[in-house]
Automatic annotation (TrEMBL):
Domain NR LBD residue range list: 154-389
Family listed: Belongs to the nuclear hormone receptor family.
Protein's name according to its UniProt entry: Uncharacterized protein
Nuclear receptor domain sequence ranges: 45-126
Organismal lineage: Eukaryota, Metazoa, Ecdysozoa, Nematoda, Chromadorea
CDD domains per the UniProt record, alphabetical: NR_DBD_HNF4A
Places the protein is found: Nucleus
InterPro entries: HNF4-like_DBD (IPR049636), NHR-like_dom_sf (IPR035500), Nucl_hrmn_rcpt_lig-bd (IPR000536), Znf_hrmn_rcpt (IPR001628), Znf_NHR/GATA (IPR013088)
Major place of residence: nucleus
Organism of origin: Caenorhabditis brenneri (Nematode worm)
Cellular component GO terms, alphabetical: nucleus
Amino acid sequence: MTAESSPESYNSDYLPVDLDSLDTLEVLDTTHTTTENTVAVVSLMEKCAVCGKPAFCYNYGVLSCNACKMFFRRVEVDKITYTCKYWNKCYDGLEFVDVKGTSPRCRACRYQRCVTVGMKYLPPGKPELELELINQADLQFTSLIGNLLFMDSRRRHKISNCYTPENCTLKEMVTRSKGSRMTLKTEDQRVDLHEWSFFGIYSSVELFMSFDFMDTICLEDKMVLLQNFALKSMLFTGAMRALAANVDRVMTPDGKDVYPDVMYKMGIFSADFLNGIRSRLVARLMELKVTNEEHVLLNVILFCNPALRPLSPATIKIITARQKAYSTALFQYCSLTYQQAGPCRFADLLALATILNKQHEDISYLTTLFQFYVPGLEYKKLFVEVCHK
């Protein structure tokens, strides 16, 4: 605690947010077309874990509003004891304490809810307790990102070094036992352009299926989530590969142009259309200098999209909680890395979803016309399912 810290700011982890911009950031709708493409992303204006009112910072280790922060502090500092007249069950079954007063406004139960959600008062002069809590939070934060980075590195290794002759459907991948069917490529193994696209989607499906929460989701909902984002994840990963290689357009893992110059000479598509597909996303990633940490977090945030339909209420609840956790981690990363510019950085990253949606639409259009002009061309089943959902 610094010399300037006041009792009100002590124990508070303030996240600098431009309050004037919160109305536009409360829900980031990344498309204006269909409900299926809408990405409902956790806003910067979160809810207080105690009462549900808007909260902009962490107090005593919990995201909470100023009123609940001061209430909790007053009880702890003044050692106040409240007694509930209703057996400490005033807010049972409610997500938040009842700030509207439709049930008894019980201070005892409000304080108990503060404790239940994790508020811990740190008396001045006990830095070791404060350090312990900070270390626990940091460990969870770094562990989450570390796990995502490991999973992504495993995916990148498979794309570059492994092969499968399969021509499976998405349902076959989702319903079979876990474990990759890809094997190491032989030295003389050659992979054509369409196979690279298939492998990119194939490895994305394997990645998302490896998340533990997918085991709790029904088959139909898994299909909805994967059909919506597997191709976008492949495009995102391909653009990150171009960023790492410092090239201005997407390339195959073996260094070939995904959209070679011969396509420009066919006369089917305009140069602007093809340039947009191969360079639009890469250019924005280069402009933002997106890091691997931001990539893996945003990848799973956009995958966990509760706005998709049809999804069951149970699945919506599961992926909303996951999206919130990953969004909080990304916002924390932005705040730590970019300081005052953290909220703007967070919004810029979420806005990449709009470009991914556009890329998906253009790829679907391109492959449809390609099949029309080249009748003998056959795509693998998985590619067709996620590209033309």
